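Pilot study result, target chain (469 residues):
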Amino acid sequence: MIPVRGYSGHKVGVLGLGRSGLAAAKALAAGGATALCWDDSDAAREHARAQGLTLFDLTAQNCWDGVVALIVSPGIAHLYPTPHPIVATAMAAGVAVDNDMGLFFRSFATPAWDYFDVMPRVVAVTGSNGKSTTSALIDHILRDNGRPCQLGGNIGRGVLDLDPAVDGGVIVLEMSSYQCDLARALSPDIGVFLNLSPDHLDRHGGLGGYFAAKARLFVEGGPERAIIGVDEVEGRFLANRLRESLGSGDPVMQISVDARLADPGWNVFMRKGFLVERRRGKQAGSIDLRAMTSLPGAHNHQNACAAYGVCRSLGLAPKAIEKSFHSYPGLPHRSQIVARSGGVTYVNDSKATNVDSALQALNAFARVRWIAGGQGKEGGISALQPAFGNVAKAYLIGECAQDFAASLDSVDHEICGDMAAAVAMAVREAEAGDTVLLAPAAASFDQYADFEARGDDFSQRVRAALAPE
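Predicted structure:
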């Protein structure tokens, strides 16, 4: 746990008692604050009470007397589409609103660091797609090369549940737009911006607000090294804004899977299946990614470029990074190969909850039997048309199945309704050379608690269908 600094002897409200909220309340208490905890859910409140936390009704009249801050969990709206009523009343009472990321960045550095030989480093990864894979890949490479490392934030452990810094240690944080948007303190040593595609637009008031939330990590955070994906206009704008006006372009490293980057700065890009590093106009490294089954497709090549850039910035040699790429096992629910049988590969990409991530998944394989659907998002799947040529047949599930079917044009498809029917039909019809792919292009909440539960259901049903009788 990282005790929160700066609130000793003060009362601090905590709204939302999921993983991050519970960790924030405990870290506040460890730092000498009185954490006043509340959640709209009775079950969440009772769970917090059972852990010894102090419940306090933040909806009560005059509840803000003496409260100096309100810590809000990521899933709770603080601005768009409308602020949560407790957030609104806190702001009206002049109470500072923050989140666990803000507490982390103000509390991580301590006087003990004066005795370290090598200063700890914080790497923060954001973007619409690939954050989890990139963060996990960085963590894997560093650990594989003997560097002390912890992984947290939007993946793994809550950020305040991490252990205090050690000499030469690295913290790798996956940061969502919600976490970037509200944090009052942001100071990563290395910041990564992967990409931008429409998502969470209701929470940010549109695409511009969504981009602005992620850009805060760089514009206000001021990392020493900014690793920026430049395959969209927003990334190019951000890289340009952060570049020095003269010289090599430091502190920016650009990454791309679409273009050969030839400017004199520090660049990492994909070319014919090879990851290429160029710095000051000269090639500094090259890795063949074509045979790495845990990193399939252009989207994973972008993740690899970003992870490579971070690890090079932390002093690792290209050969050491390449060795660790080969041993990376991949993450569950993200292009995860769950089975191979009869020449058919079965892939769980349940995390592909939006159109952009589903497009990347479909483009990673040549002949796909595609399981898609769930709780649809604004805009449907019309943007996936460029990949329809890869789809041998679609098996549609969830509440948006009819809408998806209307967008598939001449693509062969079947409305299956649920995962059981979709997997059974896809396994029965698949031929050698096919990939049975779960890439829903939709949220999971119509039929599952989360995308993990959906992916687990797919994986279990595939294994059961392939098991010998």
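One observation from the pilot: The radius of gyration is 23 Å. A full batch analysis is planned for the follow-on phase.
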